[in-house]
């Protein structure tokens, strides 16, 4: 028994070290969604400067949507169901490296910039964003969470976002799915997206109408930090 206990004491740090190393490696279970859903619209904001930080976010060296394969296949079904309604998915973010989350935390610690505040968090101060909108750990880093909306084709054949009453990454109560100030049309559009996603096993986040997590994500506590390339 004594030898077994000593062996366990040695094994636990080794397993912890292995997990620590694994977070920097893209596992085979996480795949490129574009290979599975080529007809979705990919607008990966954090791989560009078109986001609330005003720069390409750390860890986003390529504009790719990566997700766990189960979540990706469920999303493929969402896209198929959306197409029946004449719509397409627009995808803003998927897997998010932990270093990107740290980049967001660093941004929170910087002085307010009026232009950024007006566009992304007009009614809330940066400290008020911590928790409800920006967290120290993100489900995105597990590979089961994405930010998405719906698009409809216009007369020129281009897919444009349908009006949800607020834009992606507007950190404001109006972005809460059931905010009472939105119009009936906006509520209908939000619930169209919500119903499509929930119909294939995704769970909505009530604070952000665009945020969904695949419900079969399991109990994994690994927050990955491999770079998107």
UniProtKB/TrEMBL annotation:
InterPro entries in the record: A_A_dipeptidase, Zn_M74/Hedgehog-like
GO biological process, alphabetically ordered: cell wall organization; proteolysis
Pfam family, one: Peptidase_M15
Keywords: Cell wall biogenesis/degradation, Dipeptidase, Hydrolase, Metal-binding, Metalloprotease, Protease, Zinc
Keyword set includes Protease: yes
Matching Gene3D superfamilies: 3.30.1380.10
Record's protein name: Peptidase M15B domain-containing protein
Residues annotated as transmembrane: none
UniProt keyword annotation of Metal-binding present: yes
């Amino acid at each position: 028994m004594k030898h077994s206990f000593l062996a366990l004491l040695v094994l636990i740090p080794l397993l912890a070290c292995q997990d620590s190393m694994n977070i920097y490696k893209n596992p085979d279970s996480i795949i490129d969604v574009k290979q599975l859903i080529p007809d979705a619209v990919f607008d990966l904001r954090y791989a560009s400067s078109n986001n609330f930080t005003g720069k390409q976010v750390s860890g986003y060296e390529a504009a790719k949507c990566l997700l766990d394969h189960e979540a990706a296949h469920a999303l493929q079904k969402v896209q198929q169901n959306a197409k029946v309604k004449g719509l397409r998915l627009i995808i803003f973010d998927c897997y998010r490296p932990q270093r990107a989350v740290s980049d967001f935390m660093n941004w929170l610690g910087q002085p307010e910039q009026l232009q950024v505040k007006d566009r992304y968090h007009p009614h809330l101060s940066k400290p008020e964003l911590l928790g409800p909108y920006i967290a120290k750990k993100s489900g995105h880093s597990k590979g089961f969470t994405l930010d998405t909306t719906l698009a409809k084709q216009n007369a020129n054949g281009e897919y444009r976002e349908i009006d949800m009453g607020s834009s992606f990454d507007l950190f404001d109560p109006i972005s809460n799915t059931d905010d009472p100030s939105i119009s009936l049309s906006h509520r209908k559009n939000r619930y169209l997206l919500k119903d499509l996603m929930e119909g294939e096993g995704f769970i909505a986040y009530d604070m952000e109408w665009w945020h969904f997590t695949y419900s079969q994500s399991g109990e994994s506590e690994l927050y990955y930090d491999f770079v998107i390339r």
